[in-house]
Design a protein that fits this description.
It comes from Laspinema palackyanum D2a. This is Phasin family protein. The protein is mostly helical. It has helices at about 5-45, 50-80, 100-124.
Length: about 120
């Protein structure tokens, strides 16, 4: 039975291997992006839609964006994520309803009388 030291060593080598593989994959994809961006820039220069200086800046910008996208997930993994805290507030006191002006009661009475008259007319 292998000792604890051997298990730790194998786990360490596995981690290094996975990190190395991920780095190779990222580098390969970054190279593909660079090739595609360069081809696109070359086509636009050939059509006269962009100067060679603009094409060079375009390719550099694309590469910077690609490198930033690769770095972002790694930085997110290193910081531990905590659950979002929710604060529950309870209203112990109810706010008093605002006083209604007397016009509201007059209008309510008028609406009620109109509804009564409408019902009476519908029944006739």
């Amino acid at each position: 039975m292998p000792g604890f030291g051997d298990i730790v060593q194998k786990a360490f080598y596995l981690g290094v291997g996975i990190a190395s593989y991920a780095g190779e994959q990222a580098t390969g994809r970054l190279a593909e992006v660079r090739e595609k961006a360069q081809k696109l820039a070359d086509e636009m220069v050939a059509r006269g839609e962009m100067s060679t200086e603009e094409a060079r800046r375009f390719v550099e910008d694309m590469m910077k964006q690609g490198q930033q996208q690769i770095k972002q997930p790694q930085s997110e993994q290193t910081t531990p994520r905590e659950p979002r805290r929710i604060e529950i507030l309870e209203d112990d006191e109810e706010e008093p309803a605002p006083e209604k002006p007397p016009e509201v009661n007059n209008l309510r009475d008028q609406v009620q009388s109109l509804q009564d008259e409408l019902r009476r007319l519908q029944n006739e």
